[in-house]
Design brief:
homodimer, 183 residues, alpha+beta, five-stranded mixed β-sheet
Chain lengths: 183, 183
């Protein structure tokens, strides 16, 4: 398929209006469309890149977690996920997060999917890795502000969670549905 | 599958620190985990709910669009999508957006998927509808700040775009992969 023509906007003015530590900053821009029409106010949320992992054990089970997510106020099953730290590659971040959150490591890793959390207002990308043949190599290392529970599940159970709408995080549902669509 | 226990945090303090028209507001909270550990600063991005539509014509083609997305700086194929306005149901918003962005209407509508854009920091949900047997009923009605191109595609073409990673928006990739996984 041909890619659509990239009809970029021209940035006429850009300023940072909020910086919240390393998590988020907000940029306010005045832009001009190719038509010449100006949009006086557009907000861009600046985040670091993110990663998540579809981790399969040697017997083909999936390493899932559950975690309370405060903005939604709910606790759901999820993939291991996290932020790419300064100086890290996405792959390094993915291996680090899997080890920290679950104690699983080793295995064969490949890039599985790259998504935009929201191309309208997020400037970052989310990388999903497929890690095959991982195994327990250490214990979970949680920070005091983390409360993560590990679930090593049959793939059929994860598919059932997807069918039931239990995996609500779009950045996790997309690669998991892709995985099952390609099975 | 059993749902995980919802280990909710207690909100000790909550204040709005930024309000950007109807698009976004930011709430800063001080919270306490069930363990008693306090997190002094947590940010919640408050958005209205969103919708998108997998729209199928009578001959089984998919009504897609492409649109420049400024935060990412790229133009990709997408589903028709938009914001649920005040006083609207998600279904009403989905029908309105499909009509405005493409001129397609009619058909049989059902809820297909509910996702969280990011349960960590977004308080809203995104509803996907499956609309079967839609047909052209009017012309596209774009606002001056919209630059949307319509593509009525074979389903095999959309599947190919997914395989190529061309559909980058997670809230669109997830329902489309679900659709093809269930085919």
């Amino acid at each position: 398929m041909n890619k659509p023509e990239n009809r970029k906007w021209k940035v006429l003015k850009s300023e940072n209006i909020l910086r919240l530590g390393p998590w988020l900053s907000v940029r306010q821009e005045c832009v001009e469309m190719p038509s010449g029409k100006q949009i006086p106010t557009w907000f861009v949320l600046e985040f670091p890149n993110w990663i998540n992992v579809i981790a399969l054990t040697k017997d083909g089970k999936m390493v899932m977690i559950d975690q309370y997510r405060h903005a939604l106020g709910e606790t759901h099953y999820e993939l291991v996920a996290g932020v790419v730290d300064e100086g890290e590659t996405p792959l390094e971040a993915a291996k680090r997060e899997l080890l920290e959150e679950t104690g699983f490591g080793g295995g064969e890793w490949s890039e599985f999917m790259v998504l935009s959390p929201n191309p309208t207002n997020h400037n970052n990308l989310s990388y999903t890795y497929l890690a095959k043949d991982v195994e327990p190599v250490t214990t979970q290392h949680q920070e005091a502000t983390e409360d993560i529970r590990i679930h090593v599940m049959e793939q059929a159970e994860v598919r059932e969670l997807l069918e039931e709408g239990e995996i609500v995080q779009a950045l996790h549902a997309a690669p998991l549905w892709k995985y099952f669509a390609q099975e």
